[in-house]
Every structure is written in structure tokens, then in C-alpha cells.
């Protein structure tokens, strides 16, 4: 069933999208302000994927670039629509709706900017079910809808169309080169598809899930309940139903670099009771990220890994923290969250499993890693 | 008047185009073989710019990339036509003719490949009047025709359209990024224009000039005359009328690197009588190149600089030598050749004068540098 999104929903949506961003995806705050400016008192119609006409023409819109750059390079707000119009012109067909390619981070907001500017509805679904660093890491592509042709718009009105046929990795490779030369951020329209394609290839109802998560955290805080229990209760009603607390501690080290248009690095978290780090037998949680958190290890043992979600949240308020937001001494809880079955098939793992991030280990679901852990002596 | 080009003309055209390539522009040999394969016994109609209908639609075609890569990465031959078709589709208009953007080097041949494949005529003119390393270094752009939108095709069928409005440098910047990620070579269609635009902005009859130069060198060799006299006699009938021998000697050092998609470096030439280079007071000619030779200095004094032509030729046969072809010990003559007035206006020098290549010195025509030289004590 379709529903209406208002500007009042945006802070909750941003909070939930940051959680689903698993450390990356860009800060939705900037996108949220863009939506608020344009939307005013109007509403955005959100379409349930089950209700879409088979031949509805859906053109997803998004931002691409390193989140570390996105924080400093604020879009004018007109670029995503320019990307949409460029792709429409190229395809000779007008969009009936837009959709996120990514429900985590700023890309939860970019389609809403387009919707507020045009009155187009937004499909409540996405192609990542979280955030991922590359345009080819999409359930759309895994299940047969290709990203190409892609349209890319820059802040000075640059318009680029990239057509690589069914080679989504080459599309990503070329679009990334253009984005880097645009200063690190570009706005895109890609993965144009029909309503029937959406039902077959998208992760459904991820925008409403982000909104529910953000709202549940806020309400729990207001009512002095545990926001972490609220997260678990909310996710229990979705295909992201397993939640595990992986570690509680404080941030000891963060190492970050922006390389080839990506934010890469690692973080170490130590117990709250830890001293100056000189103890050799101290427990430690290590996170690796490539824009998003890709793996969490505790004392060297993997406890959650991509495509499952590794989320760092403020230890008391459950405010999600991005990798750019990680600071020495922060008290945090690290959660592992299971992803839906369609994101764990062999084809899906080929596109965005551990090997796609250069890890050598095989994917093991976070709920199985927890069982292995419990079975240890 | 229009004229017919045959496969038998191609070796002469390639020789002349290499001379006009001033060390860069890519080796026309590869392009020549592509034309021969497709053309067979047919001919290509070459259109004189003065005869073009005002509304004739001309779409230039070319290759872009570092010449050092072009030598090793041989195109399939279908890429330039794919670039043309991509731009036609984008513009919704079919080309009546193609044209070189650059008469020096391999880009003298690329439009002929397209013509042989399609039967389209080729306009006998170009936008560089020689070879230059960047797509924005065009008399077309200097006199008001912009390169954008540009279509770019890769060897695996990739199609990219780049529209930067009237910003030709941004077009070059983005197209270069894509070309680098395609492996160093891309094929392009750009600077689409009308017949009236060609007459206003192109350097006229540069294809026939290249052909005349190549033929004159060959005939002089066959008839045991000086090919250097033949070059001077041929150029005397064109707007490139001043030719000066800058140095005769042998190649001592060549330093080359391929950086950011360009072949950059320098060469040192010493007198034929020179020994092992240990003499401190020995005369020396130094060349700097960025794909093309940009400046020649003799004993530290500038004797020719861009946009005038600095050409290195084999000392006896006058075979032009590209920067990739420079070898230790080669006996060479270095010529300085004047460029037409339209390539030396302030606007033209802004686009492709010495400062555009990072040199600090002002442009001085090669014929004036010769007079200054003669006036020395």
C-alpha cells in the first residue's frame, strides 16, 4: 500500500538510514536538509513494490563518491534531477517514479530530493538493502537488471552518459573516474527498470524499515526504554531479523584514508574498563571499512562480515556513527545484523560478499557465527 | 573543389601527417592499415571547405590517448564509427561528412576509417593545423565551436557521452579520465558543426597539405633531389610558409614518461661531429615534448616554440620521427615551421600557446626568432 512521507519523518528516516549505512553511505543530514528545503508542507508518495504496475517506468537516483568528500562538498540540490533528465533524454522515455539504489546513508534522501522537485512518487525499496561502496554491488544487477546506461551530473551542469551494456563493473569503473575528476562527488541516475523488474530484483520496503528504525530509537529514548531493544523489536518484524551485540567498548584507534575515490581504513575498539592499551591480553574489536564497515573481528575471530550489517552506535543513545564520525574515546556498541536471503545467495555474494572486498574468508551468516561463538569452550 | 583519395595515397599522407604531428599525434601507420583494409579499391571523397553547404552537418572523429599507448593498443577499427553513431543518436541528427580534429599523426587517418566504412565524405581541414595533446586545443573552440557534447567509444563497445556546455577544458578533463580507464586509448566524435562553422573555425586544406608534403618527400628521394628542399617548396605554397633548419645532429639522450595519459619528456641532440659528450662547450639542441614537441632550444636559446611546428626528421631521407621513435645515435635534422595567422592570434595562443604547456616564455614566431638569431654578434 502506498503511503505519504512528510518533512516531519525525515529526522527519523535519516537516523535509520545512517544505521543501515553501516558506517558509510554518506551523512543523510545534508540530503535531509535538501529535501526539507524543497518539500515544505507537501508530502511524497511512497509506493509499495507489490502495488507497482508491471510496466511502470522506474529510474533510481543517487549520489556517488567518497563519504569523506560528501561531507565537505554540499550539492546544490539540482544535480540528481539533472541526472534523471539526462537519462530520460538518452532513453527517450519519462520516469513514472524514482527509487533509491541504496537505502543506507545519503542515498536514502537523494530520490526524495528528486521527488520533492518533480512530484514523482518514490518506490519503497532499494538495490543494496544497506550501503555498499560500488555501483555494481546491487541486487538489481545480481537478478538481471543492469545499471547501464548510467547518467551522471556534476555541480557545474556537466552531463555524462555511460553505456557499458551488461558490464556493470566497467560502468562503475568509468563512472568512478568521472566522479573523481568532478571533485569526488557525482549525482547519478541508473538501473532504469519496470515495476515488474523492481518486484523481482529489489530489496523491498527498506525505506519504511529505515524510517521505522529511526522512529523506534527516538521513541525509546523519549520513553526512557532501551533503544537497543527497540532496534531488535523493529528488526524482528523484517527480513533483517537477527541482531547480535558484537562488542561494547570505547574507540581506541581510527585509521582512515581516501584512496581512488573511496574512504578506506580500520578502527579498534577496546573494553570500557580498558586502561592505556598497554595490557597484552586485553580484548579488542577490530573493524575494517571500505566506505562501509565490511568486517568485525573480536580478538581476531570474525563475528560479522559483509553483506551482513556491522553497525557502530553510541553506547547509550543508539545514535548510529559513521566511519567519518568515529572519534577516540567514543563509547560505542557494535551490532551485527542479518541480511535477507536474497542478499546471501551465491550470486549475491559474488557481487558484494567478502571476496568482493578483498577478504579471503567465506561468508558465514552472523547468526551462525554467534552459534559457533556460544559453542566455544 | 572536391577530390578523391585512394589507398595508394595513404603512405604519402601518413608521412606528411607524421611530419605535421611534430613528434606526437600517434603513428599513422596503424590507422593507414585500417583504412587500407576497409577501403580496398574504392575512393574517399574529400570536400574542400570553401565548397561546403552552410548547413552541411559535419561530425569530426578521432582517437585520444597517449601515443606511447596507441602504438601498442591497436584499435579494432569499429570504435571511431561507434563514437560517431553514439553522437548522432545523442544529437538526433545524422552526419553528412566527417573531418579530422587534428591533421597530424594517427588522427589524419581515423576519419578516413569512418569514411571507408560509411561512404561519408571527409572535409579537407582540421582544428589543430598540426597535432596537440588536448581536445580543447582546437581552432574550432578558439573561434566559437565547442567540443561538447563529445561521444567516446571503447574497444569493448563502451559508449560514453560527455556534455560540459561551453567548457571544453572540463570536457577534455573528463574524457581523459575515461580514456585512461579504458586502457589509455579512446575513440571520439566531437565538435559537431555546420559547413559554415567549418569555414569560420577550421584550418583549411591540411589533409591535402599533409598528402602534398609526403608525396614531395617521396618524389625527391626517388629523383635524388633534396627532400628538405621539397618540403620547403611545398610549404611555400601554403600558410605554413616559413621553414628553418634549427639543428643538424645526432640524438644523445631521450627521457620519456607516460603520466596522466600523456607522453612527456625531453631529448638532447648534439652535433654530428660530437664525441662522447664530455666537452663543456659543445653545442646542443634540447627538445621538450608533451605528446608533441613544444619547444626547441639551441644552447639554451629558444629557436621555435608551440604552436609553431618543431619537427625532427631523419637527416638524409627526411623521414619524420615521432618522440616514440627517437633513439640514441639517430642522425636528425630539426625543422621549425611557421603556423598560419589564425593559429597565432591572442585567443589561439591562450588555447595552445606556450603558457598552455606550462612554459613561462611568450610566443615568438619562428621567423622572428631566426631574425633575432641572425642579428647576434
From TrEMBL, chains A, B:
It holds the Pfam family S-Me-THD_N. Residues 167-366 form the S-Me-THD-like C-terminal domain. Residues 9-163 form the S-Me-THD N-terminal domain. SUPFAM superfamilies: CV3147-like. InterPro entries: S-Me-THD-like_C, S-Me-THD_C_sf, S-Me-THD_N, S-Me-THD_N_sf. This is DUF917 domain-containing protein. It comes from Isoptericola cucumis.
Amino acid at each position: 500500500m502506498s503511503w505519504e512521507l512528510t518533512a516531519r519523518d525525515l529526522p527519523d528516516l535519516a537516523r535509520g538510514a545512517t544505521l543501515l549505512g553501516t558506517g558509510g553511505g554518506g551523512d543523510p543530514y545534508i540530503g535531509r536538509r535538501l529535501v526539507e528545503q524543497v518539500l515544505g508542507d507537501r508530502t511524497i508518495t511512497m509506493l509499495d513494490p507489490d502495488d507497482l504496475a508491471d510496466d511502470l517506468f522506474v529510474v533510481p537516483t543517487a549520489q556517488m563518491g567518497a563519504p569523506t568528500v560528501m561531507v565537505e562538498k554540499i550539492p546544490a540540490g539540482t544535480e540528481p534531477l539533472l541526472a534523471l533528465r539526462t537519462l530520460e533524454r538518452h532513453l527517450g522515455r519519462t520516469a513514472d517514479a524514482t527509487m533509491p539504489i541504496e537505502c543506507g546513508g545519503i542515498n536514502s534522501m537523494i530520490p526524495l530530493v528528486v521527488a520533492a522537485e518533480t512530484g514523482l512518487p518514490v518506490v519503497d525499496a532499494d538495490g543494496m538493502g544497506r550501503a555498499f561502496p560500488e555501483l555494481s554491488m546491487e541486487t538489481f544487477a545480481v537478478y538481471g537488471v543492469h545499471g547501464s546506461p548510467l547518467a551522471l551530473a556534476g555541480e557545474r551542469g556537466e552531463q555524462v552518459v555511460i553505456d557499458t551494456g551488461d558490464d556493470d563493473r566497467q560502468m562503475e569503473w568509468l563512472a568512478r573516474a568521472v566522479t573523481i575528476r568532478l571533485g569526488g562527488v557525482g549525482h547519478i541516475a541508473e538501473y532504469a527498470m519496470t515495476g515488474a523488474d523492481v518486484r523481482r530484483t529489489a530489496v523491498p520496503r527498506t525505506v519504511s524499515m529505515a524510517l521505522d528504525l529511526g522512529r523506534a530509537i527516538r521513541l525509546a529514548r523519549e520513553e526512557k526504554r532501551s533503544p537497543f531493544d527497540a532496534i531488535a523489536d523493529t528488526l524482528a518484524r523484517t527480513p533483517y531479523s537477527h541482531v547480535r551485540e558484537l562488542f561494547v567498548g570505547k574507540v581506541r584507534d581510527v585509521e582512515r584514508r581516501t584512496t581512488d575515490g573511496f574512504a578506506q581504513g580500520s578502527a579498534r575498539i577496546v573494553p570500557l574498563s580498558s586502561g592505556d592499551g598497554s595490557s597484552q591480553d586485553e580484548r579488542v574489536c577490530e573493524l575494517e571499512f571500505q566506505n562501509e564497515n565490511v568486517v568485525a573481528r573480536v580478538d581476531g575471530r570474525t563475528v560479522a562480515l559483509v553483506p551482513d550489517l556491522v553497525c557502530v552506535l553510541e553506547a547509550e543513545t543508539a545514535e548510529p556513527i559513521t566511519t567519518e564520525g568515529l572519534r577516540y574515546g567514543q563509547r560505542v556498541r557494535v551490532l551485527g545484523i542479518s541480511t535477507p536471503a536474497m542478499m546471501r545467495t551465491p550470486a549475491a555474494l559474488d557481487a558484494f560478499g567478502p571476496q568482493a572486498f578483498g577478504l579471503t574468508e567465506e561468508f558465514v551468516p552472523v547468526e551462525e557465527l554467534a552459534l559457533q561463538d556460544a559453542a566455544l569452550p
